[in-house]
Prior knowledge:
- By secondary structure, this protein is of the alpha+beta class.
- It has helices at 11-14, 18-21, 76-88, 95-98, 108-117, 190-199, 300-306, 328-333, 343-346, and strands at 143-149, 157-159, 165-167, 175-178, 184-188, 201-203, 209-214, 219-224, 247-249, 258-260, 278-283, 292-296, 311-313, 315-316.
- Strands 13-1-12-9-11-10-14 form a seven-stranded mixed sheet, with no helix packed on it. It has a three-stranded antiparallel sheet with strand order 6-7-8, with helices on one face.
- The radius of gyration is 24 Å and the shape is globular.
Amino acid sequence: MHATPLEHIPQTSMIDTLDQISPLPSKPHVELKSTLPAHVQPENLPFSHPLRITPADQSVKSTHKFTRGKRKPKSFSNTLLKLIRAQLGLQADFSNALGNMTLNNASQGDILSLSSRLNLTAFDLLPVPVTPKIPSCYADNRQVKLTQYWIPRENEWDETNSGDRVFLGGKDKNMPLFDEQRQLLGTVTPEMFSKCLMEGTCLLESGDMINIDDLDKPTFKLIGKRGRSENIFGLGSGPQTLVPFISVAVNDLPYGQKLYIPELDGLDLGDGQQHNGCVRVDDTSWSFDDCQIDFFTPTYIDYLWLDLPKSATIRLEDRCVLKNYVNIGHLIQMKASLDDNIIPSLLKLI
């Protein structure tokens, strides 16, 4: 339990009042060496916290082991023919109904003509919803590992995965953040550099939001500046940007899938709001395997406040209603635009 009850902390300042939740040392406690190798590999870093890698778009080089390549677009003919075949229950050769027409030589005209001869309407050709195959670890109310990730903020407190508190600021700013063209995005302390690399996204004191671009080099990418109205909380593994208390990273469930987590239902978020247990798969991570849920919270302070269990039960629930928990305080934390009209759009699945 937390040292200070919620009702004793003013809601307007609770989120940014870390020392009221957990006592801080009087001086920054630095666990890292003053310098890091120029070519940093994840396995050489002193943390074991899951490394969050979220590229800016899906056109990142295929050599990146943390990205997935684009799917080859399907042709209209192939798609429609497959739908017809599925609708009619035809076998692989479907020679009786289609003659010599195959997936490779069927033209759009052939397909439209065929659908007309078979008296199929557009409604008939709609694909039948397919229930995704779910790993057994999520079945029968089994427990899976529950972790959290957040955005490291320069000149704020954070911690290593071993629980050692670390201050992400100071005068020892000797670690450059370069982009792909070797343009300097900023210079940070070794502690901040490690957190940027480990989490994949970080917020600089200037208000610049930085995302990892190439892990092997490593290089970074500027995805937004102070006052931005997009990419408020960083990038996910697809087109959907991350949404606090909604986005989860999962490697073995469909992108965009809604989930219900009973352990989150009724959870006090610290600002008068209660979670309803509904989340969405917006992200993945190469740092852990299957059967794990990584819950996105905006800051380290939120992580401390929530004090979640180490495991949870997961249910796929398409009817789950996602709630938007973002408020003006979160925009302030992220040094984003303070126009609260952008808040409703954050939850929309792109």
